[in-house]
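Cross-check.
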Amino acid sequence: MKKYICLFIAIALIGGVVFSTGCNSNSSMLGTLGIIFTVAILASTGGAAAPVAFAASVRESVQAKVYLSSVINRGNVKIKITPMKTDSTVAPATTLDGSSTTVNNTQNQLSGTLHVTVPDSTYTQFKTEVIYSDSQNEAGSTLIQSYFSHDPTTNAPQQVVDPNSTAKAIIYDQWKGTSTDKTLDTFNKNLDAASLSGQIQDLSKKIEDNLGKAADSGQLSKYSPTKDTDVLNSASDLAKVVPTKTTTGTTTSTASSTSTATVAALESSTLSRNTLGIVTDSVNNLQWYYEPFFPSRNWSDTKTWVASLTVDSDRWRMPTVAELQTLYPTGYKSGLIPMPWAWSMDPDFYGTPPATFAFNFSTGNSVSLQNGVTADYGLAVRTAFLLNIKSATVLSSNPDGTKVYQFVAEAIPTGTYKFDWTFDDNTTFSVTSDVATVTHTFAPGAHPILVSLSNALGKVLTSKTITVSIRDDQKLSNSDIDKWRAANSGGFGTTNDNWDISKLPDGVTFDMQFNAYSVPDKFIVVYCGNVVYQTGWRGDSSYNGKPAYPGGVTSPGNGEQDGMFVKIAGQNSFQVTTIGGEQGTAWDYSIRARKP
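Predicted model, tokenized:
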């Protein structure tokens, strides 16, 4: 496998930078063959790079760069971009020909400018192909390709064209067939929902291997994955699994007091990359994003870049060494994470001056380097799907000591999901909605609850176990007025205390002292069915940014709140719910009733 065309094709704005990937000319890894490009809409007169109003037609001006292997002549390569409507109507394609005299041939590099004419704003789909031919008289064969959607009135996202995008493009052609109402956007949404990343990766590997065989036998100009019967059959099988209508889900709520829920573990799958360049690791529930144009940064600059990253919303942070190890060797060797080094957020304060850890994807080891070193690239991580129990409150207390609890849960990112709840008495609830609300009755004691989050096609995205602790009522009498009364301390999970204040006179004011110590905890006070005070996550600032603490952590862990509420006639109890974020936490709090 020594005859492959290139490592990367980078397409950038005219008048801007032609972005180099840092690859060399003798790459033999077809798995990293690809295109990274950004599209800007220019007026047909060649106006500014900012989006402009449409005239009769507009022109997308882009620059292309191809790194060739030493045995490939630049005249054998073409890059073809075809604008399309959603009904498959196509505009004339624009081709960058390697044999053109306007093309540079420096360091085995094919580069030049394409002017892609878009007749009007209804042409929102584009097909990009890399074509190879041994002769100028041959039509040539499409080696890799991609479809992407783009609203021409906005800035286009970065796209990647490689064997993986080729696999998806072939599946799309099989899925769409001759239909004019099956859109690319619907396909992409339903493809993600179908959770076929593992099968697509297998098809991508098949395409890569077959291209390698064609190159080794000198038949590269006569072979194309789009004409490979084996590839087409595999793509057809996968296309049948992808729904043909947008999957939205419906809102339902069911309960069973006898069935035992079985919640599937995360399905094992390989890494996959979407059209925004985000790499998803569904096994470890992580998403990765790297700077597509690979500038070297030191640790401080990388931290600043990650903090400002807004690709597909936010929540991005620097990775830990343990998280970076999950990418070794699969992520780097697959080409999905094409960088040899990356900074971690783990500090090494023992160096002089203090240093930080960088991770070496070639060896799988972390190395302590000074902050000023710049032999690295920006790499950000976030939790792919986050299951957040927004609140857990007591609706009522029963004479037998049981309490009716209400849970409200949401997913990040927001959307319609299926929330499955399994309680320790084998009761199950399933709620399909954007926010899940369920109720359950608990006896005093500690109760583990398993909650899982699934997409519209039933794949479990993530799950977590929470614990609810119901304790005997705390009672206040007249002798407790103007004194601090300590509650029993606690730890991990959700703990609910009901405070009986029936013996106290109306008009008494209530205060609270709390201490979450270092591991963050949250305190919520409810009176008359309303939240009258909540602390947010309180603890050591070093926990800020961890996915377990959405909204961030406020330091210090201790504090006091006076005047939370005043007792009114007929309202003789209030609840304090404490949420311990993770194992090993400890907390305590006290309540004071003051005379008016």
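The helical segments are 163-176, 184-194, 197-216, 229-239, 299-307, 321-325, 330-333. Residues 197-216 form the longest helix (20 residues). Passed to J.P. for a second look.
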